[in-house]
Amino acid sequence: MTFIIEAIQDKKGRNIVVADLTPIITASTDAFVICTANSSAQMESIVDNIEKLSAHKTRRASGDVAGRAGAQWVALDFGNVRYSISSRSA
Question: Whole-angstrom Cα distance, residue 31 to residue 18?
Answer without folding.
Answer: 7
